[in-house]
Each structure stands twice: as structure tokens, then as C-alpha cells.
Specification:
The complex is a heterodimer. Chain A is α/β, with parallel strands linked by helices. Helices cover 31% and strands 17% of the residues of chain A. The relative contact order of chain A is 0.06. By secondary structure, chain B is of the alpha/beta class. Chain B is built from five helices and six strands; from the N terminus they run αβααββαββαβ. In chain B, strands 1, 2, 3, 4, 5 and 6 form a six-stranded mixed β-sheet that branches. The chains are: A alpha/beta, B alpha/beta. At the A-B interface, β7, α17, α18, α19 and α20 of A face α1, α2, α3 and β3 of B.
Chain lengths: 578, 255
């Protein structure tokens, strides 16, 4: 090279690169840039923990301060991945404890975390600051006690929606009084026992606390005390929001909320006593985020509350809001960007609320910034979807769940192909899509033709033939994650588009028609893929090769086959030993 | 929609298609694998031939032993796998695993909210004793309380499963669900088995006959008990996990 910047200058320049994508691009420019970039990368994101090994990561990036790992496939959230499948964080923690003494942040999603791992984290990294465990499992409050006791600079402890075994309620007491660094604490997933005094003490000596999400065990009466020590909070999650209706509790609560001048987000609200809702009216106009998705409140209380939140950007709510409430939402909340409506009782044969396609149409009309939708309902029409698409071409994430599998347009009885087709055609920036209702191969033709920026697609009970899958794999250029259940997709489309799989993070197919023989073929053709067959009915090679596998998980990897699989997972790889 | 062979293959060039065909045939020779290249539903009907490592049968509960636990008084009965994938084309959502797609965490929460709602309706005004009781029953997330997903293990199988106790109201439905999970063929549908719209009636009932297995649970005190010996509500409040135990090993279990 005729001219080259000194390494220090390049390092400084690279430090302005915010995203991994940018850093990855930069590292491809030339060998010396690759070398300089890798030695100064501070933050690593690994979307599939089996796509790379800890050793490879450490070898390439020696100066990492922050690691994010994701484990189980998304469908594990719905019990489709049997227990024991994998995603153990332990080997990562062990390797990092040896090689990353300066590590500050660990963020995990859908991984199995043991108490030993937590203890190792707490003792290996002197400057450890951030621990985020979303939808994780395998640990107890003993592991949390170790974190509390040993991480003297802890800033963030977020337990997400993890499964934590509650062995003792006093783990909070392990936070020394000298620890004043806490900025964010989310213990909303924890169980029925908690020591209020420990919690109060912790909050009292955490002047920097901005986010606090309590567990259900914290009763309403205790909130005023906690809030008066934490009036600087920006995000707050209540515990159980009900109590005997008493005016003194009410006025204390109202005063406490009024004192939180910086509050922008509220959540929690389990078990709501509607009489106490007005206590939060003083903060409503400032709220940008409101999570009422566990609150069994109905109109008029719900509507009165929401209509005061003019600045709302994000609303999560149960279907008790009904179409009327959504119409009111559309009228009051012009800054709304994200709406999630969850079903209050999806297993009832008849609807218990009037929440239909009308509600979603209303919001799409009234809220010009709406770009993220998750909507559970019991009926849908093509006309409604076409209207929504026309109203909101800026949609980025659209997940619709019509609760009954294969439900058609309830007015015309046709499949919902045209409706979803309109969505992908109009919403050119669409990155995530979940389909439901009655769908033929046609909808996949639309998706393959138009959804060029689509990165994640979830399909269930849809399609007629392999052509459906073929359209998606051959047409969706940006596709990274594809998850499919109960569709008649089989060998042909998969084998014809085998090379596509190396450009994606992962493919999940369960209760489809992919044969064991095809899985073996794929594994043979594409050694950079791990082809995992998950079958609880026994070894797949004891059945004819043409018989379909129960569950299939294919992902690209540079780490080769994994060896931590349980008895019901087979990696089809010529070198792998079962 | 025209479906021809020419549409397969990564690029829209015939050369890649023929390459793909070539790959197919060469692999066919090597592996003896026959891949039908005809388009259209490529579904192969699942035929469950005789199982090699999973016994058919039913799960015994305490009701099978009204006079205490006596071995040898129940017959072994093999239940045929007649419930193959006979197109459950109109599967309703309550019978399908993992559908609607709602996280376990949230499912547990609204099982609870159903209970509290019922209390509220009964009592009208809030903030009374019933409310306090329902708060105590409150389970959110994933602690081992009522209305929860509990782990189920079966002797001889490395797989654990989870079952949502909150979606059951009696031992019978729980038993049937477990039988389906552990003894029946793949119950999720391979959907285009057209024709049959009816759910195949389950032929085995929890209380008749037996297999070599018994349903047991671990209670709050860590003791293993036969399922069915206490009222359902009490069972819910004390169960930590379930185990389908071999009859031989279940001798002498506390009743």
C-alpha cells in the first residue's frame, strides 16, 4: 500500500462505527484493516450460539467488553423445542473467564444458565456491569446472590422473562450497601417471595436507578415508599396493582407517582384494581411506553387511561381494549409506533371480547407512525389487510395471529392470500412477518416477489405444496430466519434451494414433510450447515429414509457439529458421532 | 398457477435445473434415495410401524388402586396406534401444541387472571378476602405454583416434556394429554391429509386397563405420590413435577 494510516488513526476512526454490520464491512476491505478492526472490536453479537465457538470468537476478537448470545430457536418460546436441546452458556463463560478479564457486559437470550455460570461471572470480571438474561432458564436465586454480592460495579441486572427457581427471598440482601451503581433492575419474573426491606434498602442506595421493574410479590401499598426513594425513575414496572380500596393508599400512591417527574414508561399491572388506576393519571401525558398486557381491565377504565396518554409510542394491551378502545387509541395517540394486542382467553370456543379486524384498521388509519404490530384476533378479511397495507406502507414488523388455524376471510371465505400479498407489496421496508389464517401457495408467491427486505418469516398451517417454500427461499433476498410449522413443505423445495440456507442464520421446520433422506443429503452437500433432526420418537435411521422427520433445525456454522446434544437430537454430518 | 420443473433451482436458467437433476440422480445412485420430482403435495403419510422403544399403554393413577397399591392386579394392554395422522384439517387451537403462539410466561399469567376475574365477578367490589386469596395463588412467570407448566419425565425416555396444568380441570384430561404426549404417535398434523375432518376418538381412557406405567408426582415436601389421591385443587397447589414411573418401581409409594 502506497499510503496507509497509522494503526492508531484507523482504530480511532473505527471507534465511530456503531453497528456490527459496519465493522464487518470494514474488516473485509483488506487484510490490515481486518487485523486492526478485530483487535479493537469491543462488542460482539452472536445470533446463534452454535454458529461459532467461544475459542473462535476469542481468537479473532481479543479485546471484547460486551458479548450478546442467543441460543434456542424462537419456537422454543411456544414449547416446540424439547427440554434439554441445548444452548448452554457455560462453555462460553468458562472460556471468557480465562480470556476476557475486562469483560463488562453479557446479554443472553433463550439460553440455559446455571448457578455455576453466574458464580463464575461474578468472580471472573472485576469490572462487570451488565447482565441481561431474557427468556433464560436453569438458574436459581443462589446464582443471583453471587452476582449481587460480587459485582461491585453492577449497573444493570435484567432477568427478562426467565425461569428462575426461587430458593430464597433474601438474595437481594447480598447487594452491599456500598454498591451504588445500579441503573437498571428488572426482577419482574421472580416468584412470590421477596424481602421488601432488602428491596427498599437497595433502591435507597441506588441514586442512579432509572429502570425498576418489580415482581408481582410487591404489593400496592409498598409502592409509595419505594417510589419516593426513586423519584428519578424513567421506567417503572409495578407489582400486583391491587389492594383493599382505601383513600389513604390512593392518595399516597397518587402523590408518589406525581413525584416521578421523569417517568416515561410503565409496566407490570398484574391483578389490577381499577379504582387505583387514576393514581397514575398525573404521569400519563408524559408516557411513551405502556405495558398493560397483564392487566385485566376493561372499558371504561382502560379507555379513560389510554386517552390521557397522548404521547404514547408503544402500547401492549390485552384484547379487552376491543375495537372501540382501539378506535379511541387511534384518535388520541398520534405518535403510536408499536401496538401489541394479546388474547385474554384464546382457548374459549366463542370470543369473549369484540376485537376484530376493525380495530386494527382503525389504528392503521389514525396512527401515521405505526410500524410494529402484533395482533391476536379471531377474524380477518382480505379487505381489512389491503386497507391496512395502503394506510401504512411504513410498516416494518407485522405479525398477525388469527387464532383459529386456517381460518379464511370470514366474509368471503377465501384464503387471506390477497390480504397478506397487499402487505408485502405496499410495505417495502417490511423486515418481519408472521402469517396466519387460510393461506395457499399464492401468498408465498407474493412474498417471494415483493418482500425483498424481509429478514424473518414465521409460517404455520399454510400452503399447499413445495412451491410455497420454493417461492420464499428463492425470492426473499434478505431472509435470515425462517420458521415453519405444520405446512406441507418437503424435500424438493429444500434441496432445490439448498445453497440459500448458507446465507441465512437458521431454518426451523416442524410437522412438515421433509424426509430423513433429504436431511442427510443436505448435510452432505453443505458441510457448513448443521442439520439437526429432533425426533422424540426414536432414532430416525430406524425408519425408512422417506419418512418425515418430526422437527428440523438447520443453521450455518463455522464451529462444526456440536457435541452437547441430548439423545433425541441427531446432527447429520459425516464427521459427527452420535 | 403453472407449476413445472423449470421453476425449481436457484437461478432461472435451465442449466442450473439440469445440474440439479444431475445431482439428484447421482445421489440417488449413491444412496439409493428416491426423490420424487413431481410437484404438488409431496406429503408422505406417516406410517408408524411397530415401535421399538416406546411402549403403548396407559398411565395408571391412584384410581386404579382403590384399595392401595397392589401389583399384579392390572393387565397389560397394548393399545394400537390407530390415531395416526388422519388429517385434522379443522384442528381447533386448543388441541394444538404451541398454538396460538403465546409465550409460556404469558400463558401462566393468564391462567391466573382467569381465576382472579372469576373472583371479581363473584364479589363485585374489589378488595375483600377473596381478592387476597387469589393474590396468594398468584403465579406469574415460572415459579412452581398452581396453574403452571410442570415438567413430566417418563422412565426410559431421555426427553422431558412440560404440561400446562392450568389448562386442565380434572385428572382425566390431564391423563389423556399425557397419554397423547408419551404414548401416541406424532399428534401435530401433517395437514394436507384431506378428507377427514373429525377428530379421531381416543380409545383409551385413563381408568381402564393399564400399561407398565404409573403416573406419579413430586409434592412440595419432595415426596413422590400417586396422582389422583387428593382433590384436584389440592393437587394443583402441591405438585412440583410429574413422572411416569414403571409400575415395578412404584411399589410402596405413599398414597
Amino acid at each position: 500500500m502506497a499510503h496507509s494510516f497509522p494503526e492508531q488513526v484507523l482504530k480511532h476512526l473505527f471507534s465511530f462505527l456503531a453497528s456490527d454490520k459496519e465493522r464487518n464491512s470494514v474488516s473485509l476491505v483488506c487484510k490490515s484493516w481486518y487485523e486492526i478492526e478485530r483487535r479493537c472490536r469491543k462488542s460482539v453479537f452472536i445470533g446463534n450460539c452454535y454458529s461459532v465457538s467461544p475459542e473462535i470468537m476469542i481468537k479473532r476478537f481479543p479485546e471484547v467488553r460486551s458479548v450478546t448470545l442467543k441460543g434456542k430457536p424462537h419456537f422454543a418460546d411456544f414449547n416446540l423445542v424439547p427440554e434439554g436441546w441445548g444452548a448452554y452458556v457455560e462453555p462460553w463463560i468458562i472460556a471468557m473467564s480465562r480470556s476476557y478479564p475486562l469483560l463488562e457486559e453479557i446479554r443472553l437470550k433463550r439460553m440455559v444458565v446455571s448457578d455455576e455460570s453466574l458464580e463464575l461471572i461474578s468472580t471472573s470480571f472485576d469490572n462487570f456491569k451488565v447482565l441481561v438474561l431474557l427468556s433464560c432458564e436453569g438458574f436459581t436465586t443462589d446464582g443471583l446472590a453471587a452476582i449481587a454480592a460480587n459485582c461491585r460495579n453492577l449497573r444493570e441486572l435484567d432477568l427478562g422473562e426467565s425461569e428462575v427457581e426461587d430458593l430464597s427471598s433474601d438474595w437481594l440482601s447480598h447487594f452491599p450497601d456500598s454498591c451504588t451503581s445500579l441503573v437498571s433492575l428488572n426482577i419482574s419474573c421472580l416468584g412470590p417471595e421477596i424481602s421488601f426491606s432488602d428491596l427498599e434498602r437497595l433502591i435507597a442506595h441506588s441514586p442512579n436507578l432509572k429502570t425498576l421493574r418489580l415482581s408481582q410479590a410487591v404489593p400496592l401499598e409498598k409502592l409509595p415508599d419505594l417510589l419516593c426513594h426513586a423519584s428519578q425513575l424513567v421506567e417503572f414496572g409495578t407489582g400486583a396493582y391491587s389492594s383493599e380500596v382505601r383513600s389513604d393508599i390512593f392518595s399516597n400512591l397518587e402523590e408518589a407517582f406525581s413525584g416521578c417527574k421523569r417517568l416515561e414508561g410503565l409496566s407490570g399491572f398484574w391483578d389490577v384494581e381499577a379504582a387505583y388506576l387514576p393514581a397514575i393519571y398525573p404521569v400519563c401525558s408524559r408516557l411513551t411506553s405502556l405495558n398493560l398486557s397483564y392487566a385485566t381491565i376493561q372499558s371504561p377504565d382502560l379507555d379513560k387511561l389510554i386517552s390521557q396518554c397522548h404521547n404514547l409510542q408503544r402500547l401492549w394491551v390485552l384484547d379487552y381494549i376491543e375495537d372501540t378502545g382501539l378506535q379511541a387509541l387511534a384518535a388520541s395517540c398520534k405518535n403510536l409506533e408499536e401496538l401489541r394486542v394479546f388474547p385474554s382467553d384464546p382457548f374459549l370456543p366463542e370470543p369473549n371480547v369484540i376485537l376484530t379486524e376493525q380495530g386494527l384498521v382503525a389504528v392503521s388509519e389514525g396512527c401515521p407512525k405505526l410500524q410494529t404490530v402484533l395482533y391476536f384476533c379471531r377474524q380477518m378479511t382480505n379487505a381489512a389487510l389491503v386497507t391496512i397495507a395502503r394506510n401504512r406502507p411504513n410498516m416494518i414488523r407485522f405479525r398477525l395471529c388469527v387464532i383459529e388455524p386456517r381460518a379464511p376471510d370470514y366474509l368471503t371465505l377465501e384464503p387471506l392470500d390477497a390480504g397478506f400479498g397487499a402487505i408485502v407489496e405496499q410495505c417495502k421496508e417490511l423486515r418481519r412477518l408472521s402469517l396466519s389464517g387460510l393461506l395457499t401457495d399464492r401468498v408465498f408467491e407474493y412474498i417471494g416477489t415483493h418482500a425483498k427486505k424481509l429478514e424473518m418469516l414465521s409460517i404455520a398451517f399454510a400452503g399447499d405444496s413445495d412451491m410455497g417454500l420454493h417461492h420464499v427461499l428463492s425470492g426473499c433476498e434478505s431472509l435470515r430466519k425462517l420458521e415453519i410449522r405444520d405446512c406441507p413443505f418437503g424435500d424438493e423445495a429444500l434441496l432445490a434451494n439448498a445453497a440459500k440456507l448458507e446465507t441465512m442464520r437458521s431454518l426451523w421446520m416442524s410437522s412438515c414433510s421433509v424426509s430423513f433422506g433429504a436431511c442427510k443429503l443436505l448435510a452432505q452437500k453443505l458441510p457448513k450447515l448443521n442439520v439437526e433432526v429432533i425426533d422424540e420418537m426414536g432414532p430416525p435411521d430406524m425408519r425408512p429414509e422417506s419418512s418425515p422427520v418430526d422437527k428440523l433445525y438447520i443453521y450455518r456454522t463455522v464451529a462444526g457439529p456440536r457435541f452437547d446434544m441430548p439423545g433425541f437430537v441427531w446432527t447429520l454430518n459425516e464427521d459427527a458421532k452420535h | 398457477m403453472e407449476t413445472t420443473l423449470g421453476l425449481l433451482g436457484g437461478d432461472d436458467t435451465s442449466s442450473s435445473v439440469s445440474k440439479m437433476e444431475h445431482d439428484y440422480s447421482s445421489y440417488t445412485d449413491e444412496t439409493g434415495l428416491e426423490l420424487g420430482l413431481g410437484l404438488g403435495p409431496s406429503l408422505t403419510k406417516v406410517k408408524k410401524s411397530s415401535r421399538t422403544w416406546c411402549e403403548y399403554g396407559r398411565i395408571l393413577t391412584a384410581k386404579d388402586f382403590p384399595n392401595g397399591f397392589i401389583t399384579g392386579t392390572v393387565n397389560n394392554m397394548c393399545v394400537d396406534s390407530s390415531t395416526e395422522n388422519t388429517g385434522n384439517a379443522s384442528t381447533s387451537s386448543s388441541q394444538v401444541v404451541g398454538w396460538p403462539p403465546i409465550r409460556t410466561y404469558r400463558m401462566n399469567s393468564f391462567n391466573q387472571s382467569k381465576i382472579t376475574n372469576a373472583d371479581q365477578e363473584e364479589n363485585g367490589a374489589s378488595g375483600n378476602k377473596e381478592m387476597e386469596d387469589s393474590k396468594k395463588k398468584f403465579n406469574h412467570g415460572n415459579t412452581k405454583n398452581e396453574a403452571d407448566f410442570v415438567k413430566v419425565n417418563m422412565d426410559g425416555l431421555p426427553i422431558g416434556r412440560k404440561v400446562d396444568l392450568g389448562s386442565h380441570t380434572c385428572y382425566e384430561t390431564l391423563g389423556k394429554t399425557l397419554e397423547e404426549m408419551f404414548f401416541k404417535s406424532n399428534k401435530t398434523t401433517n395437514s394436507t391429509n384431506c378428507g377427514e375432518n373429525e377428530q379421531v376418538k381416543k380409545s383409551c381412557k385413563l381408568l381402564d386397563g393399564s400399561s407398565g406405567f404409573v403416573l406419579t408426582y413430586e409434592d412440595k415436601d419432595g415426596d413422590w405420590m400417586l396422582v389422583g389421591d387428593v382433590p384436584w385443587g389440592m393437587f394443583l397447589s402441591t405438585v412440583k413435577r410429574l413422572r411416569i414411573m414403571r409400575t415395578a418401581e412404584a411399589k410402596g409409594l405413599g398414597m
